[in-house]
Structure formats: C-alpha cells, structure tokens
From TrEMBL:
The gene is RGA1. This is Resistance protein. The lineage of its organism: Eukaryota, Viridiplantae, Streptophyta, Embryophyta, Tracheophyta. The keyword Nucleotide-binding applies. It comes from Elaeis guineensis var. tenera (Oil palm). Residues 1-140 form the NB-ARC domain. Pfam families: NB-ARC (PF00931). One of its GO terms (molecular function) is ATP binding.
C-alpha cells in the first residue's frame, strides 16, 4: 500500500463530479474483511435510500435504485478479495452495467481477474525525478536552498518512490 491508489481514486471522483460526467458518484471503502451489509448501507446512504434488513432484499433494492441512474460511477476502495457485486451486494454488473462504471482499488492484481474487470491499471511507486518534483510542489521552492536541498533530497530518497 501507499502508492496512491486511494488518492488517485478520490481525484477521479472529484473530477467526475466537477465535470458532471455522471449523475451520481458514490464511494465505499471495502477493506480487508468486507461486510456486505456495511457496503450496502454505505451505498444506500450515498444514494438516499433505506434498505430492508434482509441482505438479499437489500441487494435487490440497491440494484433497482442503481439501475435508475442513467450514469453512475461506483468507487470501491481497498478491495482485498473477490466481491459478488451483483448477487451479494446489489451492484449491477456485466450485461446490466450500461452507463454505469465501477472503479476498484486493490493491492492484489488477481482480484481484477477474479472480478472480471475490463481494464486493470497498475499504480506503482514514482520513478526517476518524479518524487523530487512532487516533493518540491508540496514543500515549495525553499527546499532548493543550498542549506536545505541535501536534507530534502535525503527525505525524498528515504521515501523510496512512495508519494508520502
């Protein structure tokens, strides 16, 4: 972790909202031990609906609500294992996804394969001069002061390409 997957996802969500690319943009953190009821509830809250207590009825109600959105972006962050999006959670997937997009972040590349993702985009640590450019953009030109630059470059080196 720590390469910036969540930050990248959040920026995609912000831009999608700002540019009105979707009618709705909803984000849910899944985590290492996913709880279907919590995922459903988080989606329902963001979509403004109340779900029945039964998990199967909740999945059906959630699917029905999501299908009402012509264009929706669902952001699922920190997915560790395969999720049954349609059957268990209630997120239309596969043939039912017209106009609906799902973006998943995961540390495990095999998750994309098991969830039949259309496209996998690896996010790796920064390379070459990118960490220095990022650090400078956040810290300001002051880090190029002859007294500070060696220490600043050491900090960047210690981060080993992670955008900390």
């Amino acid at each position: 972790g720590g390469v910036g997957k969540t930050t990248l996802m959040e920026e995609i969500g912000r831009r999608a909202r700002r540019e009105s690319m979707f009618d709705a943009v909803v984000k849910v953190v899944v985590s290492q031990r996913p709880d279907t009821v919590k995922i459903q509830h988080a989606l329902a809250v963001r979509l403004g609906i109340t779900l029945p207590e039964d998990v199967n009825l909740a999945a059906a109600a959630l699917a029905s609500r999501i299908k009402k959105e012509k264009k929706i972006l669902i952001l699922l962050d920190d997915v560790w294992d395969r999720l049954e999006l349609k059957k268990d959670v209630g997120i239309p997937f596969g043939e039912d996804h017209k106009g609906r997009k799902i973006l998943i972040t995961t540390r495990k590349a095999q998750v994309c394969g098991t969830m039949e993702c259309d496209t996998a985009v690896p996010v790796d640590v920064l390379s070459d001069e990118d960490p220095w450019v990022l650090f400078k953009s956040k810290a300001g030109e002051v880090i190029e002061d002859p007294d500070l630059e060696p220490l600043s470059r050491e900090v960047v080196k210690e981060c080993a390409g992670f955008p900390l």
